[in-house]
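#structure-requests
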Amino acid sequence: MAALTEDEFVLLKKYNSLLETVGEAFDYLSDKNRNASTPVTRQVVLDSYDTIGKIAEAHVNLVILFEKNEKALQVIAQFGDLLEELEQIGHFDQNTIPEKEALRTFIQPAYENWKNQIQHHILPHIAH
């Protein structure tokens, strides 16, 4: 990838922040000691919807930025697999809170693995 413009740098910084936010939401939602029916928990779920949507939207620009990096493009594409898994456990159902056990044992590890892979491609461009 060529040198980043300031806008591209800001995009990658914000994108990385979104990645961390979803990780924190999954940590919160999968906590065994957390009451799943509180308004705060519901808000974390709703905020995670929004953040996941922003990550997906950012992929349009990331595909352009990483157009010559096949490995990065493959990792970006794998995000769709995570979305399917989240859908299967009901994460996007408006009337339910995702099952903690499914989040803890399947989704959270898969997300962390994916996040580490994508950060492998973006962090070198935003680290000082």
